[in-house]
Amino acid sequence: MHGVKRQTQQAIVDRKQREKSKIEGLLKLTDAVLDRKKGKDWSAEAFDATTQLLTVNPEFYTIWNYRRNILLNGLFRESTPEDINELLSGELALTMKFLQSHPKVYWIWNHRQWCLQNVPQGPGSDLDGWRKKYWAFELQAVEKMLNADARNFHAWNYRRYVLANMSVPRPESSELTYTMKKIESNFSNFSAWHQRSKVYTSLWHQGKLDPIKSKEKEFELVRNAMYTDPDDQSIWMYHRWLVGLGHDKELLEREIGVIQELLEEQPDSKWCMESLVHYKRLILTNYPSDRDKDLVADCVRLLDQLKDIDSARRHRYEEIHRAVVNISTHP
Amino acid sequence: MAADTGVEDGAGNYEVTGIPPLIMSTHLLVPLHVKYIQGLGESKDDLAYHLTAHLRLNAIYWGLTALSIVNHQDALDRDEMIEFVMSCWDEEAGAFGAHPNHDAHILATLSAIQILVMQDALDRLDVPKVVKFILSLQQPSGVFAGDSFGEIDTRFSYCAVSALSLLGRLHELDIEKTTNYIIQCRNFDGGFGSCVGAESHAGQVWVCVAALAIMDRLDVVDVPTLAWWLAERQLPSGGLNGRPEKLPDVCYSHWALSSLAILKKLSWIDADRTISFILSAQDSEGGGIADRAGDMVDVFHTVFGIAGLSLLGYPDLLDLDPVYCMPAATIEKMGLRKDWQALERRTTSES
Ligand SMILES: [Zn+2]
């Protein structure tokens, strides 16, 4: 149970009193449906009974299984593709209704996915007609879900599934526009930053975008975000991904400069300090020079401050401290 | 000691909202939690009890594990429990459903195996049959489905790996294939998601890291990055969240703590503050632990609260194995212990 307020003993007693008849009804319905299931009843009546039970309890996975079996072994048999399409269309409407009140129930998303996989060919000679229509609608449906909760990971997973399976694929780059929209409305949407990292990786792999150019654009975006809200960890984690292993010394030094400047404006910024330590360590490891002593001193000074202002993670900073000193004593 | 609740009307009159005042406990209320767990099977007058029938076997595993960690394993009747587990067997599938007459699923099957292991009753199980069920769920990509309908999730990969290992049949698993799928779920933050492309999430991180630990493949984890991401789950309240910019929660705290213990970086968070956060989520009247202070308790958050406390060295608790989420002594006896590290157990006087 998540986010449900605790009740007083009296409120619990009252609630239980009110629930009595509901419990009786639920148990009777459950027994009836499970009996039909045992008897391999694939009828329309059985199907309707599962609708009734799932409306009360959409998490009852056995009943979703039974429902699919009724479709496969009963209602789909001797049906025209039109009938099957009609049935699945009903399933999609039902799951959409359920998702609005239960947006985080795995089994509902799961059933929806199964329905889409079972859309027949048609109508008529237009073999992909129904499918195209459904998939185009799915993207809108999932956007609606993400408008209601921009961090719902079920919805994001489903979005990726839809994008990967649409019969008319959208260019992957359009996902950069979508995540940008999400990020602009809230910099803290880590789900959107995550999605961006996946889309870029894929586009770079396919040679559709130049990693150096796209990273430059991202650095600019992140810089704006850092200055807007330097306490937002999403931005700093994404920045760390952009810098990567620090194999571009010039870029590394440039970003250190940017963060240093921000730190001067925000002298207590934990994330500025934490990132500076990380990037300076990359310089120490990748590009040993006679400046090392100064860099180590910088890191030690920042780490001492971090131990103070972020004491919960003090042991981590101490561990890094030891590692930094170690680099300088064992070149 | 009544803390400020923000729901009282000032005159101590809280009946208006039906929400009780928040009593902050400073220690673990073991007898109350034992009573709460014992009472779960008798709450048949509660609608929620019936609406969670599809989680019954999981709930028994959670209750038994919680009781074992507070050293009251005998508080529930052993024979009755074993009989109930066996009544959930789905002969057609060759595995367990969550409740009698419910369909077999890998989630319920792992819970059944864990209960039978803890009750030393594995001899009741048709091992070859259940192994066949588990192995049949592996997909060509290497991930596992939850049942024959094919929903995939790295949670199910963990269930398969953990169950096979507890049954002494891990050698029948294609470890490379299983590991390769998990590697594909790794993200830029060092964490893991539920499937390829999915965002990191403390619960999914735990299933992936624990599965890798069982398969001796922790070498594929970017420990500094992941442990950093996990440590940043801790919020000023002491609780940990499951993803950046989300609310703290006892269950997510546990998954992050377990993952850190497996990576031997549990010292990277402030244990004292997490302990207070978990203790504050107790119901000091009826027992049990909630997701956060003031919320309704359930057995799920009760076990993860107690398990988290055990890993953090809370006094007078038995050790929890963070890889299997079962009593460490049980896992050690089976020769399955991996190289994790919890915080040192404190003595009562320090608490
Ligand atoms: Zn929770």
Automatic annotation (TrEMBL), chain A:
Matching SUPFAM superfamilies, A to Z? Answer: Protein prenylyltransferase
Residues of the signal peptide: none
Transferase found in the keyword field:
yes
The EC designation for this entry is: 2.5.1.60
The record lists the catalysed reaction(s) as: geranylgeranyl diphosphate + L-cysteinyl-[protein] = S-geranylgeranyl-L-cysteinyl-[protein] + diphosphate
Which Gene Ontology BP annotations are present? prenylation
Cellular component GO terms, alphabetically? Answer: Rab-protein geranylgeranyltransferase complex
Keyword Ribonucleoprotein recorded: no
UniProtKB keywords: Prenyltransferase, Repeat, Transferase
What is the main EC category here? transferase
Recorded GO molecular functions are: Rab geranylgeranyltransferase activity
Q: Source organism's superkingdom?
A: Eukaryota
Tell me which family the UniProt entry assigns to this protein: Belongs to the protein prenyltransferase subunit alpha family.
Q: What does this protein do?
A: Catalyzes the transfer of a geranyl-geranyl moiety from geranyl-geranyl pyrophosphate to cysteines occuring in specific C-terminal amino acid sequences.
Protein name stated in the entry: Geranylgeranyl transferase type-2 subunit alpha
Origin species: Pleurotus ostreatus (Oyster mushroom)
UniProtKB/TrEMBL annotation, chain B:
- Cofactor requirements of the protein: Zn(2+)
Bilayer-spanning residue ranges: none
Question: Keywords of this protein's UniProt record, alphabetized?
Answer: Metal-binding, Prenyltransferase, Repeat, Transferase, Zinc
- What does this protein's UniProt record list under function? Catalyzes the transfer of a geranylgeranyl moiety from geranylgeranyl diphosphate to both cysteines of proteins with the C-terminal sequence -XXCC, -XCXC and -CCXX.
The protein's matches in Pfam families, at most eight in alphabetical order, are given as: Prenyltrans (PF00432)
Q: Repeat: is it a keyword of this entry?
A: yes
* Family under the similarity heading: Belongs to the protein prenyltransferase subunit beta family.
The entry describes its oligomerization and partners as: Heterodimer of an alpha and a beta subunit.
Per its record, how is this protein called by name? Geranylgeranyl transferase type-2 subunit beta
Query: Looking at the keywords, is RNA-binding present?
Result: no
Catalytic activity reads: geranylgeranyl diphosphate + L-cysteinyl-[protein] = S-geranylgeranyl-L-cysteinyl-[protein] + diphosphate
Which EC numbers characterise this protein's activity in its record?
2.5.1.60
- GO BP terms, alphabetized: protein localization to membrane
* Domain Prenyltransferase alpha-alpha toroid, residue spans: 31-326
> In Gene Ontology terms, what is one molecular function of this protein?
Rab geranylgeranyltransferase activity
Quote the cofactor binding remark: Binds 1 zinc ion per subunit.
Q: Which GO terms describe its cellular component?
A: Rab-protein geranylgeranyltransferase complex
